[in-house]
């Protein structure tokens, strides 16, 4: 040991020296803890909307435009992950859900014949009221003058045709499902409207890893604080602690993010086997992810709602009405020509269209049946879990990181600011090198 080193060791104020790693450990813990708060909270934007701010933000650099708060045209904050819910939905479809196959293949896995049986089961008891309601509205005198036996005959004939008609409808939906259903739009819109779901994906399977990241912030902070203490006690410059606090804060957050996601596949670094905390639990993550997708996103209820009320809902309604029309003609049977003469062709067609129109709403009733939807959710969950588990680790990491990636610089900047503050606080309490 040289005389210079011995002299340095003799001059060190060890109390102050070790206070620096303790400070950086506490700051590192706080950085990662508050970083998680920034990631997840609040789920909805909290702040004040400022008229014209959204337009003004458009001239700022792209990264500034993406800051939660500014992107909503206000001064405030929304958690980074819920603010990016739609983007994560888009990546999720591209990386995993699209690998379930085409919408037609996906629809076949939902057992359309079983759906058809359920439609008949639910729809059949409602037929008398449906036909009675339409006929009273469209041609009350004809329906009033028709003997009860005649009314029952019309209902019976429609009911008799119902299984075949419904089977035709479910087949038609399957044949045109690629044009009627867009899973990407469906998932993106659902995530955008329900950002808490994206938070759940992380929380439900990754809370242990996220907590571990907070504690690693303290460990990294302590280890990084040792060379900071050496530099501070060697050069005795007042600006060193704040400046190096910026570095420690930035690096602590960067190491925390790296710990969570990298490397996606196990590898050895300096002889030590390392593997990202999230990708090492891809199988468990896939089960959690699939459960949320099946129970809250790609549900039969949401599929039915998208088919009827989504951007292509008009086409679905028209297709179903066309399929229901022949059932009404067949129910009229041999008296159809006489009915047309009595009513006039235009009036007959209006009744026919009215019954078909009302029938459309009932045709997709089982999609809104929660018990039936839960039964089908098991199939969706199995499909999504298997595909997510089969994803290459890099794709899985990209899917999970998509909601954060563009905004990680904010976490690092937040760490740098806190590191700077910690350096200033230590300098204020202990002075330069403890002097």
From TrEMBL:
Chain segments annotated as transmembrane: 15-40, 210-231, 237-261, 409-430
Keywords in alphabetical order: Membrane, Transmembrane, Transmembrane helix
Protein name in UniProt: DUF445 family protein
């Amino acid at each position: 040991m040289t005389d210079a080193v011995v002299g340095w060791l003799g001059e060190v104020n060890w109390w102050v020296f070790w206070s620096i790693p303790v400070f950086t450990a506490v700051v590192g813990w706080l950085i990662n803890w508050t970083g998680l708060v920034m990631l997840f909270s609040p789920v909805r934007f909290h702040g004040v909307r400022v008229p014209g701010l959204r337009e003004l933000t458009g001239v700022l650099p792209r990264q500034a435009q993406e800051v939660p708060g500014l992107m909503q045209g206000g001064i405030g904050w929304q958690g980074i992950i819920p603010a990016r819910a739609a983007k994560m939905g888009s990546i999720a479809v591209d990386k995993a859900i699209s690998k379930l196959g085409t919408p037609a293949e996906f629809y076949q896995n939902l057992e359309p014949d079983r759906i058809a049986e359920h439609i008949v089961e639910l729809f059949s008891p409602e037929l008398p009221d449906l036909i009675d309601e339409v006929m009273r509205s469209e041609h009350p005198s004809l329906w009033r003058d028709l003997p009860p036996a005649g009314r029952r005959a019309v209902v019976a004939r429609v009911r008799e045709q119902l299984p075949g008609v419904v089977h035709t409808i479910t087949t038609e939906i399957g044949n045109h499902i690629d044009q009627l259903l867009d899973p990407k739009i469906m998932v993106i819109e659902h995530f955008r409207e329900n950002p808490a779901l994206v938070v759940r994906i992380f929380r439900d399977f990754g809370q242990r890893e996220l907590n571990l990241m907070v504690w690693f912030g303290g460990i990294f902070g302590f280890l990084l604080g040792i060379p900071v203490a050496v530099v501070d006690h060697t050069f005795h410059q007042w600006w060193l602690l704040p400046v190096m606090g910026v570095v420690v804060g930035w690096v602590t957050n960067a190491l925390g993010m790296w710990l969570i996601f990298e490397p996606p596949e196990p590898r050895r670094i300096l002889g030590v086997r390392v593997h990202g905390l999230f990708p090492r639990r891809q199988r468990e993550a896939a089960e959690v992810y699939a459960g949320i997708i099946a129970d809250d996103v790609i549900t039969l209820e949401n599929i039915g709602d998208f088919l009827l009320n989504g951007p292509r809902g008009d086409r679905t309604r028209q297709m179903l009405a066309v399929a229901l029309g022949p059932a009404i003609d067949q129910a009229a049977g041999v008296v159809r020509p006489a009915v047309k003469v009595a009513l006039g062709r235009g009036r007959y067609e209006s009744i026919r269209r009215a019954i078909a129109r009302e029938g459309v709403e009932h045709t997709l009733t089982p999609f809104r049946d929660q018990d039936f939807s839960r039964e089908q959710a098991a199939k969706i969950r199995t499909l999504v879990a298997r595909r997510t588990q089969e994803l290459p680790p890099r794709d899985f990491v990209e899917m999970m990181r998509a909601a954060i990636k563009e905004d990680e610089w904010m976490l690092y900047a937040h760490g740098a600011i806190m590191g700077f503050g910690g350096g200033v606080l230590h300098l204020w309490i202990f002075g330069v090198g403890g002097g």
